[in-house]
């Protein structure tokens, strides 16, 4: 079936579904490239910072975070805590949480739109099917000779939009769940690494204070 035939058979509902399909593909491509571009590894940065903090090389730790490329997200988050390490545990954790929230929100841009399309597309398709069925039965009611071909043809045309809407919904929701899993995994790693770094900072500051 060509695109022109699909548009003719699908009726009015095929047009919003086409918009939804284009938006879904665009979002999937954009989010995929964005997530691939940003390095979501946390362990390497964590180990380097813990080693520097144990040596009380806070200047080196902050310099390492500042020199990290744009692709790395975790150094910017840990830097927020290192910069105010003298203000206590609560302030350190709060600063890192705020920076992490901002960075994670950047990763999640467009997720809500994928969910919205995944919900609206099948409903739009079903509405198009209902509209098509009404037209099909109206044609049957006004036809002098009703045959199986006439009935099957009308139902076939009506069901196209439901199938199209379901395909869009499956694609949008599947990709959303995949992206959400990646971001959730990154968030969990950040929480674990952040907890270790805060603990090491506090221990290092406490030891340093006792030495003084």
**SSE string, helix = H, strand = E?**
HHHHHHHH
β-strand percent reads under 5%
Uncertain spans:
207-212
Radius of gyration, in Å, reads 28 Å
Average pLDDT, to the nearest integer? 86
Number of domains: 1
Task: Give the overall shape.
Answer: rod-shaped
Instruction: State the end-to-end distance.
Output: 80 Å
Helix-residue proportion: over 70%
- Helix/strand/pairing class, anyone? mainly alpha
- What is the number of strand segments? 0
Work out the helix count: 8
Major sheet summary line: none
Oligomer: single chain
Descriptive report:
With 212 residues, the protein is mainly alpha-helical. The protein has one domain. The protein has 8 helices and no strands. The chain starts with a helix and ends with a helix. The model is unreliable at 207-212 (pLDDT under 50).
Can you summarize this structure?
This protein is mainly α. It has helices at residues 3-10, 14-37, 43-54, 58-67, 74-82, 89-107, 111-142, 148-211.
List keywords for this structure.
8 helices, 212 residues, mainly alpha
Describe the secondary-structure layout:
Elements: H1 3-10, H2 14-37, H3 43-54, H4 58-67, H5 74-82, H6 89-107, H7 111-142, H8 148-211
Helix pairs in contact: 2-7, 2-8, 3-4, 3-8, 4-5, 5-6, 5-8, 6-8, 7-8
